[in-house]
Every structure is written in structure tokens, then in C-alpha cells.
Amino acid sequence: MDSPDPDGLLAEQLLRLTRRLQRIQSRQLEPIDITPAQFRLLRTVAHYEDPPRMADLAQRLDVVPRAVTTLVDGLEANARVRRAPDPTNRRVVRIEITEEGRATLRSLRNARKAAAEEILAPLTAEQREVLGGLLTALVDGMPERRRC
Question: Taking phi first (over 0 means left), then psi (-120 to 50 degrees means alpha), and beta for anything else, what does residue 89 get?
Fold first, then answer.
């Protein structure tokens, strides 16, 4: 009989938790009419002090520029972002978050908080603190992806 594989079991549990988080997130994003990729882009745009260029967003999100164009198109169609000319270079387009985009982010933050509460409900405050420390150690210990 094979001995138990604790790392394999842990990996399976992490995968199951990830799938559960994705299902909860999709369920919460659906009424807001935004995809997870659009949400990620919207969050990224909001973190810039000055409106970013499409190339900045592609680099930050580690995707090809064409993917950013498609995401911006969808967000612009829902008035969550707008394209604006760069004041110093007429060939450059900047992406600005709109008030509708900010309202969407507020709604999404509330939805994420509710999702976290749902996932973490079985844990005590002490267990949540330990889990947070463990997750931080895993995330901080991950090697950065190399850009080609």
C-alpha cells in the first residue's frame, strides 16, 4: 500500500479551493456585467496616478497589447473607462477610469468581501491570521515570472 502523499493532498485542496473561489467570483461578477479579466484591467487602471497607456497596461498585466485593446473595448462600451489623447504625444492614447468605473470597483470590492466571508466562515479569527501568514509566505516565496 502506498503511503499518503501530504503534498499531493495539499495541492488538491488548494486546487479545489481555487475552483470554489472562481465559482463564487463568477457568480458575483455576473450581475455587474463584467468578466474577471475586465475586472483585473479596471483595478489596474485605477492604481495608476496618471492614466496609463495601453502598452503600460499590457506590460503590467503580462499580456499582449491586443488583449488589452479587447478588454478596453468592453469596458468602454459600458462607460467604465474612456480613451483619452495624451497631452504631449498625439499618437499615444491613455486609458482613464470613469465615475461609472469607480462605482463598479466599489461594487466589486463589496462582492469580494462577501466572497471572502463566505469562504472563511468556518475559520476562527486565529485560524484566519495563521492562514494569512501562510499565504503571504507562499506568495512572497514565488519566483517572479521572466518576461520574454
Answer: beta
